[in-house]
Design brief:
Elements (H helix, E strand, L loop, with lengths): L11 E8 L2 H19 L6 E6 L2 E7 H17 L1 H27 L7 H41 L6 H9 L6 H10 L6 H4 L15 H13 L3 H26 L3 H42 L3 H4 L4 H9 L5 H6 L3 E7 L2 E6 H12 L8 E3 L1 E4 L6 E7 L15 E4 L7 H6 L2 E4 L7 H9 L3 E3 L4 H4 L5 E5 L4 E4 L1
Parallel strand pairs: 8-9, 9-10, 10-11
Antiparallel strand pairs: 1-3, 2-3, 2-4, 4-5, 6-13, 7-11, 8-12, 12-13
Amino acid sequence: MSRSFINPNHRLFQWGPIGFKLFYGSIFCEMLWLGIKREYRKSWPPCLGLHDHERAAFILEDRTLRSAGEYFFKTYFLNLKKYRAQWERYEDWMERYDRIEKEFDRIHVASLTIHELAALVEGLYHFEEEFWLIVHVPEIANWGGEKMLLERLQRIDRERASEYLEILSAPVKYSFFQEEELELLKGRFVDHARKYRWLLNSYGGNRVLTAKYFTDKLKELLRKGSAASRIRKIHAARARNVARKQELKRRLHLTRQDMWMAEQLAQSIWWQDHRKAYIWRMNYYWDILLHEIAKRRDWSFDDLLWCWPKEILHIAKGSRVDRALIRSRKTYYVNELSEHGIKHIYGAKAKKYIATYLSRETEQTTELHGLAVSKGDGKAVRGRVTIVQNPFVDGKKMKQGDILVAAMTSPEFIVVMKKASAIITDHGGMTSHAAIVSRELGIPCIVGTKHATKILKSGDRVEVDVAKGIVKKI
């Protein structure tokens, strides 16, 4: 182990563990630690990618992450000229993506020559590289913007600063999940399944949704109220966020600078969520290409999901790639990611490395403390715990009104999150996925408890007190 790489005794930021196939996150990893500094003068801080039997966690030092986040937030969100330039780059990329997607849908991949197939793989890879060069900015800026706004609010009222941060950082634009639901409720069903077939994709695997899935979803939505009432509820939540911000501005006498920072943090959080739709859309096409490569080159599709992009290109072109090495990544595999390159660690050494960062002893307690990122109606909630690692497997155990407990959440958790009366996570902050979605749904959420998934068990009864940020076994 590189002892100086990331000190496990320092305060760490952790993303995961969560279901993860290497290929789906590999272009992200390559660009963030190999390509960013070439264009932005400042790279992401060093990171560990810890892969343990198809689940992954990423570890960074909290201090260096917040410091890099501040740089990107100040430079690309608080500087209006640079913010507009960055957003225009994104708009241009989205327009080109929509054209490419239409062209891709007309291609019969099975009829391509192997050289044409390899060229298509290379073209999509470079197009996704360009995407990550743009959208990593809101990803990292969130952590800096959250820190900066919280510090400003603490000078006004230290005790209630986190409560104010929750209000001011809430996005006022619709998420892609809300946009899909609004279209469904408004009866815009023509081509809906094709447009949103990627909706439940994830880093752990993809699902192609059919028209039947959306028909069933609409029936379920309408059991809970009319289409008009559901639409009003979504619009009302947005209006409530806007009103809460304005009321807080008046009550705390927030300056124009304060509100600009808050508005740009909310925009950054929304943007981070918005770009996730394009990740899932591209993964839909990657699956088509990988399945075709598997047929042509006598590889299993699952083995290809443990390749880096350049290895995929080598395989498509007929070059030799070590299958045993690829398959060994499915058990214990570690990446040290930095601007200097990617170091790969395998087997027993990787297992020991993973244990150093993830297998921490936890004290026996009946009370957990965390950050309340969504207050719901502000009242304490009692209920039965359901631990969810994989929402497509564990989600079947989740009953309406249960309290969802997870290491963290990501978009594929949306189905189980909608059933929950409250959400508790080990990791995350005010700008995490759990925070964003729980505020959309209007349900209580406490993140950053560190050990909820280890201390609590499915079937436990707990009380979630968002006023104090405390979870108690009862």
